Amino acid sequence: MKARLKSYAGFGLVPALSILLALLVASVLIIASGLFGPEKKVDLLLPLVAYRSLLVGAFGSFKGIANMIVAATPLMLTGLAVGVGLKAGLFNIGATGQVLMGGFTAALVGVVVAGAPPWIAIPVAMLAGMLAGALAGFIPGFLKAYTGAHEVVTTIMLNALAQLTVSGLVNDVFRAPGFSFARTPPVGNAALTGVGGTTLHVGVIFAFVCIPISYWLLWRTTVGFEIRAVGANPTAALYAGMKPRRMMILTMSLCGAFAGLAGAVEILRLGYYPAVFGTSIGFDGITVALLGQANPVGILLSALLLGAMRAGAPLMQIQARVPVEIIDVIQGVILIFLAAEIVVRRIFRLRTEGVGAGELQTITRTYGEKVVGG
Amino acid sequence: MNALLDIPILGFILQFLVYLVNVIVNGHIAPIILGLATPIALGALCGVMNERSGVVNIGIEGMMLFSAYVAFMTALFVHQAFPAKPSPFFGATPALILGVVAAIAAGVLISLLHAWLSISVRADQIISGTIINITALGLTSYLNRLIKPFDSAGTFQSFRPPAGLVNLPGVGWLFEMFTAVGPIAMSVIVIVIIIQIMLFRSRWGLRTRAVGEHPKAADTVGINVIRLRYRNVLLGGVFAGLAGAYLTLEATGSFQNNMTAGRGFIALAAMIFGRWTPLGAFGGALLFMGSQAVGVAIRLAPPAGDLGTFLAGIQQAYPSIYNNFFTGLPYLLTIIVLAGVVGRSIPPAADGRPYEKESST
């Protein structure tokens, strides 16, 4: 029992310390920001003011908490879209493109079912988005399994292609008349409207259900075991009678399904698909998955953390005059410390065994390699 | 000739080829293509330097963006402190030259982070590249919002080649392409040729390729794998820095958030398309950007005959899809090449594997 507790502590320790160090690094930038404010002076307490308003923005009111959960919802899903892939030794940079495909399809299907009652319209539109995302994930999975084209490169290219395809279709084919900008028609009853005066919507439930489902899938089913086995050592998995190729395709489709669902949630919340749909949730998913050490529980916690930062940032910008972009800087610096785990351990003189980060090292190793067949 | 052009499908393709040659030779778009291809080619060179020695680099986008910002801010700062008139030499000012130097320094600095993470710390190299992209975007957007620069240090001017040279029949467009451009775009072809020769004809090149294909064997014959990888990744940073400087000091004269807009990823595509060789990557960059320039040319001056009616019809009905098709072509071609549908492109064997010296026992 004690050993188990210790391993849980070791699991969360490096991410927690990385967050701490990143906040310290960011405070230097925040102090520097005082130089460009109206008073042009160095205020050493400004980081505390900024972080305080960040906390108040996210947790200070019921509305704030609701905003935080709503911001965390798509991040959980894109976090799973990257994290489940990492378990199989696949790095899904394509969450961005899969989000766009999922959101776009959900918007189109949403228009079709706009007149149906919400309890039919919402699930149907969400399911459509999920399937479109799965298809978008299937493509790089198939290419990796049968041609050896590395998923990192193909998903980067597919991100750009998805964006160009979808914006072209919205502008030229599905544009709704009567609006000043290119967008699809409203999704009517499929829209995820806020409940009880807050931004909370039923889509949140989908994300919170996906976390335990993926945990169960990865650790309680044969498929999950095979996914993890292929990720740990594809050659060994092949000799054990598994089919690494089929697992790669399955995993990438599953990842795509999560990302597609995230896109559906975001678009149905908006109520339509705009031709210019810039969203960072795909790339944020990478941060969430790495910070959560590709573990569903870790993903849930890091999505909530990132959601809190996103929800609290506007208040911070108003009260402390620190641009919201500091959140992206913090994300990047957290990741630097996570990647340089050795350094974090040295700073804090940690002796615990590293958990999680080691298994992530298999991803790039496959870059120059042939794919194991079967 | 006309009989050939009237054949149903083949004639259509021939008509298009004739139009294409005509546009490139007489349309004065060759320098524009080189200009568009410059940041892509330089970014791809950065990738070649990294991956040939066994370090995957998907952070080219972030490196370019960060360098572009540093270049712009340095040039602006120097310009405001010491205003100077543009010199006849490409309109260069001390501000612009120092901006380029700063961009190179920034490219090397951020490459040092990549080298340290992926060679010394032995972190996952793709994750390291992703981190660089995320951090560079966040940091430059943050600083840009904070400082809000209104002024500009101007840009380098393009060279004006003599009209006699440009109007030479047949080859004039080539002269125009490589001379009617600014200094960074002009230097690209030189850098590409030097690196191509060095990589395949010099001792350094042989060692670099050995380290990228089989580091253990290289180590056995006495090559310092770690040091060589560091050196090459930092050299790659020089090219990424130049690409960034091109964007803010030669192409636009301003900085916008996320102004690289995926160019680093097209550079990655050009590198793969060019099979990890400098000349191939340059060719890839020209092809990719050429397709976009031709897309614009067709819109401005559509070809005559059936082809013109056909293209004009598509463009009228689906303007956005038409544009996006030409923009998306590079990405599609890269997937096709990587998947091996036509001529498979294969990365260096040790690409992406951190090197760990085995302890002597």
Describe this structure as you would to a colleague.
The complex is a heterodimer of chains A (374) and B (361). Chain A has helices at residues 2-33, 46-59, 62-87, 95-112, 118-147, 151-172, 203-220, 222-232, 234-239, 244-270, 281-291, 296-320, 326-339, 341-347, 357-360, 362-365. With 374 residues, chain A is an all-alpha fold. Chain A has one domain (2-365): ABC transporter involved in vitamin B12 uptake, BtuC. Chain B is mainly alpha-helical. In chain B, helix 3 (30-52) packs across helix 8, helix 3 runs antiparallel to helix 12 (225-251) and helix 14 runs antiparallel to helix 16 (319-339). The longest helix of chain B is centred in the N-terminal third of the chain and has 27 residues, at 94-120. The radius of gyration of chain B is 22 Å and the shape is globular. The model of chain B has no long low-confidence stretch (mean pLDDT 87). Classes of the chains: A mainly alpha (374), B mainly alpha (361).
β-strand percent of chain B reads under 5%
Mean pLDDT of chain A: 87
Helix content of chain A: over 70%
Q: Summarize the helix and strand pattern of chain A as letters.
A: HHHHHHHHHHHHHHHH
Q: How many individual domains of chain A?
A: 1
Poorly predicted spans of chain A: 354-361
How many discrete structural domains of chain B?
1
The rounded distance between the terminal residues' Cα atoms of chain A is 40 Å
Number of strands of chain A: 0
Q: Main sheet of chain B, how many strands, which sense, barrel?
A: none
- Separation of the first and last Cα atoms of chain B: 75 Å
Based on CA atoms alone, the radius of gyration of chain B comes out at: 22 Å
Secondary-structure-based class of chain A equals mainly alpha
- How does CATH name the architecture of chain A? Orthogonal Bundle
Q: Roughly how many Å is the radius of gyration of chain A? A: 21 Å
Count of alpha/pi helices of chain B? 16
CATH architecture verdict of chain B: Orthogonal Bundle
Mean pLDDT of chain B: 87
By CATH reckoning, the class of chain A would read Mainly Alpha
